[in-house]
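User: structure tokens for this one?
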Amino acid sequence: MRKNNIGWIVLAAVAIILLTSSIYILDETQQAIVTQFGKPVGQPRTSPGLHFKTPFIHKVQFFDRRYLEWDGDKNQVPTKDKKFIFVDTYARWEITDPLQFFIRLRDERSAQSRLDDILDGETRNAIASHELLDLVRSTNRDPEVTEDFMEEIEILEDINVGRAQIERIILEKANQRTTDLGVRILDFRFKRMNYVDEVRDRVYDRMISERNRIADQFRSEGQGEARKIEGNKERDLAQIQSEAFREAEEIKGRADAEATRIYASAYNKNRQSVDLYKFLRTMESFEKSMDDKTSLIISSDSEFFKYLNKLP
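Assistant:
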């Protein structure tokens, strides 16, 4: 009885081992192929759930069915116009044919290495075939002009291709080279571009020179505006002074006319008024023409002498 129980236990254990060795579970994020002595058997398994294989003979190779990341190395590349730049890129890819992928690449590490060769090579070819302006801009947009003087300063040259189109060219050519690898590149982008140190210094110098030119233009226009304001001030001042002088002369003229009218009115009233007027005018003449150091030589028939002779 005891030997029979042991036999049944061994038999059950063997059955469990055989059962577990013949079953595998495929996750929703995975796809797989079955190999026999290193060679693929049958079609790829892509449906999630429970699957069966021959125990001890078949092995299962799992591959990710999600979008995968490729991050390129930062490389120094010359453009068509002979400007050296550092280029950093990235892409997204997926395994579209697990069987072909296993035959050609075996695993994701090999796939990443192969993508390095393909994408880096196509990136170099594309950059070397286009000028820097096409790599940093995507459209022929009009610059935003906030001041009138900037219309002649901020002028953007037109591009022929553009950054977005170059990215599409690289993506298309790279996918042509991956059709037999069982993978597809979904997207390709330039992560970052930057000048090498020598070129960057020249660019900074040119930017400084451009900004100095703009500053000089600011100063020149400011000085011109200042001279214009100064000229307007002098003109307005001269006009105000001229109008003030004219108005003052008009007031004086009206005052003299009024005084003359009053004098004439008073002069024509009677004999005493005439004498008084003559006397006042003579006194005014004395006051204006003489001081304490003045000496007069007058004739006996002079108006001055007549009034002086009447003094006590």
